[in-house]
Amino acid sequence: RGIEPTVVEYLKEPPDAKTLSGLLKKLGVQPKDLIRPKEHRALGLPETDDAQELITRMATHPEIIERPIVVSGGKARLGRPPEAVLEIL
Q: For 68, which of 9, 49, 56, 79 could close a Cys bridge (C-beta 3.0–4.6 Å)?
């Protein structure tokens, strides 16, 4: 499609809470939907449904964020399944 992606390696450069909030809005999901449960448990983090707490955890522990996330314009999609990305390109 002639699109050159910008790759953000968020394990190396974690997004801050404001960036994560913007991504969640573009994705149209709640913070709990962006959490990798296995990684979250492995860190010994207690379960919570508090949205702000989960955003803070993602900013502090980026390894718990589902990936990849593709952003195009004002929309974003999780890259699983890969076909979901085509909806916004």
A: 79
